[in-house]
């Protein structure tokens, strides 16, 4: 489904209003301190609004939206620093299942992912965190008549609260996509302590863990879902970048030193002007990448890689500058600048680093 | 849905019309001009054709030599001209001097000046900056004193490109010394070909001389040549500078050796540097800067077409200056030791050296990067001005040096 500009504006309003009232900074701080790391009540509302199921076909209970709408919605969640498994369940797991050829699994899992009653997540990289085929650390093999998984999957987003794990594993003749449920108790799950407390992830260790084969899969299909997740990541990065930038500019107008607003000093003004170019460039990059993917135009991969590092770099740079520009108050836990800087640092590594994507971009350009 | 199809048909029809016209009229190239200001007769003849076809200023109404088009449709025309390398279209955006005259001169002056300028029958230059008024442009000290039916002009201007080929200039002069700094300024459409105007070429760091110093000694201009009203010069100038920033944000100057491609990847390959991972990282970053600048430009046009406000337009010049400096830097790093050398035997080194120095054309000309950052932070971000001790006192009492 393609939405119109008006529909998109309305969509933005709905989510923006919801998050303003229910994902305020104090709410984010309360949620990030909980064990689960998300607010089940708000999650349910996101399900009702069709946001969790945004990428899932209506026939499976979703809203059937595409990359353009995804990017837009994620700008809002990123701006609020929403603590939720949206990226793992609603984006990565949902898009991996959406491209599956296994109808039975789709019918069984997608509706409950869409309405939020089940949380799904993807396990695809080992401790090295490559998010490439080389980074897969789980092996599947047949033991008598049963399938078993062995190995390690790390950085599994919201692993501790997830019901369903989609595990990408090596087989004797390629890759397979496997389903492991929480109730299959024969795997170890260790929550990882996260520098970004608004985010959760876990390390899974499989030891002859029973699993169901969803289907044999090639890396290209996994990559496609990862690409969708990169659009979502770019959206959240852009939203966060803009929010912390706006907050910083507002502070520059109200904080007085030497009898004048600090924003009247050229040291601050010039810095802010330079940062604005990064802010605006990252918005352009994220939206362009989403547009290319939605319209399946040439160079969509090039656009995606550009967004992948431009939005990461901009968020890291702007949120780091925000701490410095706030001065002392920016160094305190009570000020939100560090929350944005933590998220920026986390997202710059999650799914692949800026230098990795710079290299991918250059390769797309033929170098 | 219907409307959208109509719009698409319309777009296709316009493209078809422009292409057909170019096919019928454009020979594929023009003999080279001496420089941007000294055009060959063939180029001038071409510009007349473009003007007469209404492509020169498509957004202006038909009785002002245009076609009454939206900016969006006019951009299509520019694209089609650009595709085949034909100059002269869409001067309602690129020709910031004519744009200033169109928006600020009275109808009589417009009739007299605009066709001649668009066809380049007449040349025009800018007399803004002075040796002691660069970034602080409102501090100019060239005087315009009432004399006869007009004004007597005395002072010294600098950074004037094309002065030797100009018939007119946009002249910024002080008409009231008791008013505050910004309030006593007037812009004149000043005739250049007269006694009392002396043009001296200025040698640039690129070893070119596009710019001149202009000495004005008892030169004359009629009161009818005032643009936008007496003592209203600062306002007119703000508009003129904004048009100039837009134009400068759109354009970058090509390498001196035009046969050499802008392709940085090709250059790195040629120098065997594509296996250098540190360089690859930098290369990707620099290419991305250029691409992001283009994407910002595209988004700015889209927002403009939807009448949505956007800071993007004002960022263009500053962003472009970063692109040009960074491209020149990595070009230098690729070419390496050969940049010790120059001249036609070392075209790639020559390009790297030229572009590294020429990047200052954009980062200083038309308002330095530092002034751009002031403008962006004040007008877009709403940050307060620095205290300005001479802003509110009669100009006579201000210090300069």
Architecture overview:
The complex is a heterodimer of chains A (367) and B (401). With 367 residues, chain A is of the alpha+beta class. Chain A has helices spanning 5-22, 25-32, 40-48, 67-80, 86-98, 103-114, 219-254, 266-295, 300-326, 337-349, 354-364, and strands at residues 120-123, 138-143, 146-157, 164-171, 174-181, 187-191, 201-210, 212-217, 256-257, 260-261. Chain A contains 11 helices and 10 strands. Chain A starts with a helix and ends with a helix. A 4-stranded mixed beta sheet of chain B has the order 1-4-5-8. A 4-stranded antiparallel beta sheet of chain B has the order 2-3-7-6, with no helix packed on it. The longest helix of chain B has 29 residues, at 277-305. The termini of chain B are far apart.
Q: Could you give a short description of this structure?
A:
The complex is a heterodimer of chains A (367) and B (401). Chain A is of the alpha+beta class.
